[in-house]
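User: Can you predict the 3D structure of Major intrinsic protein? Sequence below.
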Amino acid sequence: MVDQTMDLVISSTEAVPQCKTPVENGGANSFMTMRAEKFSTWAIFLACIGAHEFRSPEMWRAALTESVATACLMFTLTCSIISCLDSGEVDPKLLVPFAVFIIAFLFLLVTVPLSGGHMSPVFTFIAALKGVITLSRASVYVLAQCIGSITGFLIIKAVMNPNLAEKYSLGGCSITGDGGASGIRADTALVLEFACTFLVLFIGVTVAFDKRRCKELGLVMVCVVVAWSMGLAVFVSITVTGRASYAGVGLNPARCLGPALLLGGELWAGHWVFWVGPFVACSLYYGLSVNLPKEGLAWVEGEYDFVKLTGAFFGGKWPFP
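Assistant: Sure. Here are the predicted structure tokens for Major intrinsic protein:
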């Protein structure tokens, strides 16, 4: 990718006429010089955002994978969560995190080798911030995920019982200003989205974006860690709110977009929460991640043992060889 980027910059620069400065040419070519500088800046900008990927068939295949996987994930996950909540169990909330874990794990296992397994603008955004993917690929991924979400919820709307669809707002992310039965307050949802997204990033993404630990753990265990962090976040969110009909934190703005566009109303009124919360969490996590230790914990093999240091201090001896 770096070589392609540099080739784009070099080829674009070579295409620009070698204009002399106004001093060297008596000011006659000043206009051409300014134009060449602007063209060179534009070429560098295109290289920085990875514009060359727009011409890559592999990138579009990966985007198609993201769209199809997101649609399937929305259909499977939403139907499963609604089934859990409407199961008649004494405490159906406890079933939801396990459903999220199993489904997320299976989809990650399949899609990570193909497209990176994002299926959410949250993971795409943090991947772009950390330089794992280019901004061009990130923009296409987010668009594909949103299209996939809308497609998935269109299928759900076509097959779901109308009473269930109305009761659970088509599995969407419901927000009500007074914290009514169909959802929670916007400020509560914002804090939950921020905190739970940060939890998933800190546990899951820290492992997933670490090449050394990925190699040590393997694909299966990395997918387990990411999926379990998502299940944990959902469990925390549905237990602290006390809302029987609340299906947990969104963790995925695309998941909330589909129902909001199809049903509107309260879902659309508070939709901004499910974009702002996660993206603030991504920004803060990125700031933290660049300051995490690079080499891990350095073991000192007992050199600073408390008893040893105490004896050396009171004995007046130097404790280290």
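The chain has one domain: 54-291. The two ends are 49 Å apart (CA to CA).
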